[in-house]
Structures are given as C-alpha cells and as structure tokens.
Write a structure and sequence with these properties.
Largest interface: A-B, 32 and 29 residues
Mean pLDDT of chain A: 90
Number of helices of chain A: 12
Mean pLDDT of chain B: 86
Distance between the termini of chain A: 34 Å
Number of domains of chain B: 1
Number of helices of chain B: 12
Structural class of chain B: mainly alpha
Distance between the termini of chain B: 28 Å
Strand content of chain A: under 5%
Strand content of chain B: under 5%
Order of helices and strands of chain A: HHHHHHHHHHHH
Order of helices and strands of chain B: HHHHHHHHHHHH
Oligomer: heterodimer
Radius of gyration of chain A: 20 Å
Helix content of chain B: over 70%
Largest sheet of chain A: none
C-alpha cells in the first residue's frame, strides 16, 4: 500500500512539474473551468428569482441548493483531477498498443491506468466548491450537526468511488471495443443526471428514472446523499440513504474491478 | 500524354465548365453522405443522446413550476419551456459549426492555408460550400431521430403556426446558419494574429452558450437589472448577435415574436449576417497580407 502511495505521489509531482512548466496554460485552464461553473451558478441564481425552491416542499431552497451544487463541484473536481485524464488517455493506448507497456509493469494495471495522470487545474472548481459550501451553510436556516460534518467527507468519498467505478467500467468498454471515442460524451450524459436533487425526478417518467439511477446505476446517490446530510436535518430517510451510498460505493468498486479484470483478460494487443 | 488526348481533355473541360462547379458540389455531397452512412447506427444513437440533457432540464423546470403558483415564467408555461429547449436544438443544428474556427486556425498554423493563396479557389467560399454539404447530410441523417423525439413530445408544442410564420421561421434558420458560419470563420481568422486561438474559441463558446438562449429563454432576463438605468440584461443581450443562433428562431415558432417586431428582428438578423460576412472578408484580406509561410 505504501509503495502505491509513494508511486501516486511521484505521478502527482511529475504532473505538477509539467503543469508549472506551462504556467500560463495552467492558469487559463483554471479560468476556463471556473468560467463554465460561474455560468451554471448564474443560471441557478436566475432560477431562484422565479421560485423559492426546486420542487414543492422538497426543502431545496436557495442556500441548501447551493450547498448541493457545491458538493457536486467538490466531488466532480476530485474525479476530474485524479481519474479522468488517465481514462481519456486509455482510449488511445488501446488503439495504438501502448497498453502493452502498462501490462508488463510490476504494478496493478488498474491503478496505473486510472491514476497515472493528475490534472491540478481541475482542483480550481473544487476550491470554489468549498468556498460556496461555506457561504451556503453559513446562510442556511438549518445548522449541520457535528455528526453530519463527520459523515460528509465519508460520503464525498463514497460519491467519488461510485463515479470512479463508472469511469473504470467505461474504460473496460474501451478495451473490449478497441476504441471508444465517445467515452467523454457518455460520461457527460450519465453524470448529467446527478446534477440536480433526486426529488425533481417524479411522476410517471421521473419515478422510473429515479429508481434506475438509484439502484441500477447509482448516479443519483453520488451528490444527493452528502448534500442532503449537510443541508437537511438527519432523519430516518437520511440514514437509509447513507447506508445505500455505502453499499453502492462498495459494490460499485467491486463490480468495476471484476469487469475491468475481465476486459483485460480479453485484451489482444494492437501492436506488432 | 499525346497531343490529341490533351486536346480532348482541354475541350471537354471547357465544355463542362459551366457544370463543373456543380458536379464538384454533388461529388462532395455524395462523399459526405457516404461517410455519415458508414456509421449510421452510431450517428443516430449519438444524435438521440444529445437530447438527454434536455430530459434533466424538463424535470428541473417541472420542479420549478410545481414549487411556484405561477402559470408562466417570463411568458413561458412549462410546456412552452420544453418546446423551447427542443426548438433550440433545431436552431443549434443550423448555427453550430463544430471545428470551423479551430480548423481555420490550424490551417494557418500548419501552413496548409497557403494552397488557397495560390489556387484559384476562394477559401471562405470553399469553407461555406463544404459546410453546407456537411449540414445537408447531417439533416438527412438526423431527421429520423429529431422527428422521433418531436413526435414523442408533440403534446408540449402549441398548435402549428400559419404558413407565413413557418416560412419566416425557415428564413430565420437559414440566416442563423450564415450568421454562425461567418462568426466562427472570423474567429478562426484570428489565427493569423495569434498562434493559439483555442482559449479565445473557448471564451466565445462560453459567451455564446449563455447569451444565445441555449441555456434559458432570453425573455427571462427582462427583469434583471444591469446597473444602467432603464436597461435590463435582456436589452443588453439583444444588442448582440448571439440570440439569433439559438433563441430567435425558437421564439418565432412559439409565437413569442410576431408582426412588425418579427420583420424588424429578421432584418436585424440579416444585417448581422452582412456585418459578420464583411468582418470575415476583412480578416481574410488583412490576415493573408501579414501571413508568411515557410517550408515546402
């Protein structure tokens, strides 16, 4: 374990050196990702000029909703920083045969393939997320309990684990298909469902979507559970959701590991 | 090559010249169509997937309407908003130009633009022709998924407008295509002045996404103050060309703009097309004057 941690630290250091070599580019990447995010925040602010809350009696009024958005920013920035750059490179590695060089290394292939690149500019959104969370929590009517603050980082890790498992399964699909250029598209469309509180999915169409995205692809648990813990009082329902998030994260990690191993076993080198 | 063969070729080229351009066009169109149809399944699924973000928007706005007692927001009922988002997808299918600015800037950077400087082909004209072929092929193939989604969502739409409005709607779409083309082509021409324009393109996409009405109908900005007395955020946006690349045609179909206002706005849209076409031409002239290519 220590060996892996020190290798991860070496990867991170190398990426940081690389990012700092092209400082202007790094700064520009930070600014652009903050730009997209600010645009979304402006959209949400606009929505709250028309309504006191999102969904009738759901409790997602302005400040709790911004705590929700902040949680999403933090989770997504961790995934974007740690896993996405490597996953994107995998597509090219499978096609060109570069994956062979990884498989002969005396290291776990999944570790190497999913964590060898770290994108520090993605942390910019996470930092803004932390600031936004502080602002939202300080203005909320509900004061989160110390227990909620203890559970919050744990549930953030669960959210990251679920998203990481999805990335790994999409990467496994890349290995099986030989090429998967739309990996990022899939990712975008899939995570799009986690951007809003689960309560908005109701009615004859929303109900099945909510069930599907909670129990089959647990994308709705990623942001909803930690955000709910911090923005709303802990109730019986919250405990059920916390348990669901823990189970979903553990099983997603296990299943993705199995799928990835199965995909690697089917891999036939593309190089000569 | 024998003398007679070369003569025969020359004469056939001369005879065929009036139609040569048209033939080239049809060849380009046929190639584009074949390219698209190779991966038709992937293409149709890809087009359908682009509607997925709208699904979350529909649920979000439904939740917003549920929480308020208002029947409409900025003149849009919930059904109007769903119809609006679907219609902006149609406008974007006309006005979005994937890869255009980046392609122009790249051709300047890697020097491939120089072949248009020595050949009797107008670069902007060539790009426009290629883009029209690209779009026509896109509509032919994307018609099916679009028709399917619109049929499923037909209950959200108001009654079909009269023929005159439909004609003006089509005109607004054609103008939005031209406006999108000339705006992005001008942006790409900045490559003559800056080596790397990807950050400028990104900033443009950002502004375009927010101010074109792609995210929400521009009418929602009417009550938002700007700090300038008597000028709302919507007024500011309407002084810019972006709304014609997403909002305006959708608003025409939904009957949000009609009568004299509709005619006036169409004239403004046409004027923007002219302004951007001239800007694109000036950028090309000025750019090629300062351009220097090295190597073979």
């Amino acid at each position: 374990m220590n060996r892996y941690l020190s290798i991860l630290a070496t990867f991170a250091r190398a990426c940081l050196v690389r990012d700092m070599t092209f400082r202007a580019n790094f700064l520009l990447e930070c600014i652009t990702s903050i730009g997209w995010m600010s645009m979304n925040l402006a959209f949400y602010l606009l929505i709250f000029t028309f309504t006191p809350e999102i969904g009738k009696n759901t409790g997602w009024s302005r400040e709790p909703f911004f705590a929700f958005v902040a949680t999403g920013l933090i989770i997504n920035s961790i995934v974007q920083a740690l896993f996405m750059p490597s996953a994107e490179e995998l597509t090219e590695m499978v096609r060109t045969g570069g994956l062979d060089a990884v498989l002969v290394q005396p290291l776990d292939a999944q570790f190497l393939l999913s964590m060898h690149r770290v994108d520090f500019s993605a942390c910019a959104n996470g930092l803004v997320g932390v600031g936004l969370l502080g602002w939202a929590v300080s203005r909320m009517d509900h004061v989160p309990s110390p227990l909620a603050w203890l559970l919050y980082p744990l549930l953030i890790i669960c959210g990251v684990a679920i998203l990481y498992s999805l990335v790994i399964m999409l990467a496994a699909a890349t290995i099986l298909l030989g090429r998967n250029q739309s990996l990022y598209d899939f990712w975008f469309y899939l995570t799009n469902f986690s951007r809003y509180p689960a309560e908005i999915y109701s009615g004859p169409w929303g109900g099945p979507i909510r069930t599907l995205c909670t129990f089959v692809i647990p994308i709705l648990l990623v942001v909803n559970v930690p955000a709910r813990v911090i923005a709303m009082p802990l109730s019986g329902e919250s405990w059920g959701l916390i348990a669901a998030a823990l189970i979903a994260a553990t099983s997603a990690l296990l299943i993705s590991r199995l799928v990835f191993q199965a995909a690697l076993a089917k891999y036939r080198s593309a190089s000569s | 090559m024998s003398h007679s063969t070369s003569e025969a070729m020359t004469s056939s080229t001369t005879i065929g010249r009036p139609f040569a351009g048209l033939r080239t066009w049809f060849t380009m169109l046929a190639i584009c169509l074949e390219e698209r149809l190779v991966y038709r399944g992937d293409f149709i699924i890809g087009t359908l997937m682009r509607f997925l973000p709208i699904v979350t928007q529909v649920f979000l706005w439904t939740a917003v309407f549920n929480a308020t007692s208002r029947a409409d927001i900025a003149g849009y009922s919930r059904n109007d908003i769903v119809a609006y988002y679907l219609l902006t997808m149609v406008t974007r299918a006309f006005s979005s130009m994937p890869g255009l600015s980046g392609g122009i800037a790249r051709s300047v950077r890697d020097g491939s633009v120089k072949k248009y400087l020595v050949q009797p082909v107008d670069y902007v004209g060539y790009l426009l022709a290629a883009r029209i072929a690209h779009k026509v092929v896109y509509y032919l193939v994307a018609f099916l998924p679009f028709a399917g989604v619109f049929y499923v969502c037909r209950s959200y739409f108001p009654p079909i407008p009269d023929v005159g409005t439909i004609a003006l709607y089509v005109l607004s779409l054609v103008l939005s295509f031209l406006l999108g083309f000339f705006m992005e082509a001008t942006l790409g021409m900045l490559g003559f002045w800056f080596l790397e324009v990807s950050s400028i393109i990104f900033a443009y996409m950002l502004v375009q996404y927010l101010l074109s009405g792609h995210m929400f109908p521009i009418d929602m900005l009417v009550g938002i103050p700007t700090g300038i007395p008597g000028v709302s955020a919507a007024d500011l946006v309407r002084w810019l060309p972006f709304e014609y690349t997403a909002y305006f045609p959708a608003a025409v179909w939904l009957g949000k703009v009609h009568g004299a206002t509709l005619v006036r706005d169409l004239a403004i849209e046409a004027a923007w097309v002219v302004v951007m076409a001239v800007a694109c031409r000036i950028a090309w002239w000025r750019g090629t004057r300062r351009y220097s290519a090295f190597g073979g």
